[in-house]
Design a protein that fits this description.
With about 260 residues, the protein is of the alpha+beta class. The protein contains 8 helices and 13 strands. Helix 4 crosses helix 7 and helix 7 packs across helix 8.
C-alpha cells in the first residue's frame, strides 16, 4: 500500500512535513509501520498551489529516500495547500505517469488502496471515463481511473456524491465478473481551497487515515508522521472528512455509496 500526506493551512515549507519529522513521509518510504509493505519505493510525487489557481506537480520513479531533487524542492517551496505521496505499486508499471498526485484543472487527487482484480476489469472500468476526459489518462493505474470517472460524474460540483457513484459503479463491475478481492479506498482531493479525505472499503477494511489540526492548519496522513499518537485522530471508516473555510466536518460516505446503489 502507498503512503501519503495532505496539508491545508498557513503557508509552510513542504519539508516541515514531508522530510523533517521523525517518521516523515520520506522516512516512511523505507520504514512504513501501518502498511502491508514496509518499503514504498515505486516512485513519489508532490503537488502544491502557489500564486495560480492550478497546482504544480513534481513526480518521479526514484524512491523518495534517495532523490535529492525532492529534498531540494521541499526545502524551497512554501505553500498553504500541498499533497505528497510515496508509491508501492499494486501491479501497474513503475512510471512517472503512474505516480501520484494526479492533477486535472484546479484539482489534485491521490489514493491509497486498490481495485481488486483490476487487470481483469480494466477495460470495463475505463469505459466509465467519458470521452471528454479519456485523453487526460496518462497512466495505467486504477487510482487515476477512479479520479477521471469521478470527474465525469461531477466531482467538481459534488465531491462526495460523485465519488460515491464512481465507487458504486466500479464495485458493480467487479461483482459482475465474480471478483472476490476487495475495493479499498483512502484518498484525498482538493481544488486548492476545500480538502476532502475519503476512507471506504467494500469489506469495511479501508486503509488507515488520520488527521491533525494545530495552530498552522490541517494535516491528513496515511500514518502519523511523528510518535505523539494523541495528536492524531482517525478518520472513521466509511466517512469523508471535509475541510474548508468553515472548518472541518465529517460526512458519511457509506450512506452516499448506498444511495448511489439504490
Amino acid at each position: 500500500m502507498c503512503r501519503f500526506l495532505a496539508y491545508s493551512g498557513e503557508p509552510i515549507f513542504l519539508e516541515d512535513l514531508v522530510c523533517a519529522p521523525a517518521h516523515s513521509l520520506v522516512h516512511q518510504s523505507l520504514y512504513a509501520e501501518e502498511a502491508k509493505t514496509v518499503t514504498n519505493g515505486d516512485g513519489f510525487g508532490i503537488g502544491w498551489y502557489g500564486e495560480r489557481d492550478t497546482p504544480a506537480t513534481f513526480r518521479d520513479v526514484r524512491p523518495a529516500w534517495s532523490d535529492e531533487n525532492l529534498r531540494a524542492i521541499c526545502a524551497n517551496v512554501r505553500s498553504g495547500t500541498f499533497f505528497a505521496h510515496i508509491r508501492a505499486s499494486t501491479g501497474t508499471a513503475t512510471s512517472r505517469a503512474n505516480c501520484h498526485p494526479f492533477a486535472h484543472g484546479r484539482h489534485l487527487f491521490m489514493h491509497n488502496g486498490q481495485i481488486g482484480g483490476f487487470t481483469r476489469v480494466r477495460r470495463q472500468i475505463e469505459s466509465l471515463i467519458p470521452d471528454a476526459l479519456y485523453g487526460a489518462r496518462a497512466g495505467t493505474t486504477d487510482s487515476e481511473a477512479i479520479f477521471l470517472i469521478a470527474l465525469g460524474y461531477g466531482l467538481e460540483r459534488e465531491p462526495i456524491k460523485a465519488m460515491a457513484r464512481a465507487l458504486c459503479d466500479i464495485r458493480n463491475i467487479m461483482l459482475e465478473h465474480g471478483i472476490g478481492e476487495p475495493l479499498r479506498f483512502s484518498a484525498t482531493l482538493t481544488d486548492g481551497e476545500n480538502l476532502y479525505a475519503y476512507r471506504w472499503a467494500c469489506d469495511a477494511k479501508p486503509p488507515t487515515l488520520y488527521y491533525r489540526e494545530d495552530a498552522r492548519g490541517l494535516t491528513i496522513v496515511s500514518e502519523p508522521i511523528n510518535y505523539v499518537r494523541d495528536e492524531w485522530r482517525e478518520v472513521p471508516k466509511g466517512c469523508t472528512l471535509v475541510a474548508g473555510p468553515g472548518g472541518v466536518a465529517l460526512d458519511c460516505l457509506n450512506s452516499a455509496v448506498q444511495r448511489a446503489a439504490a
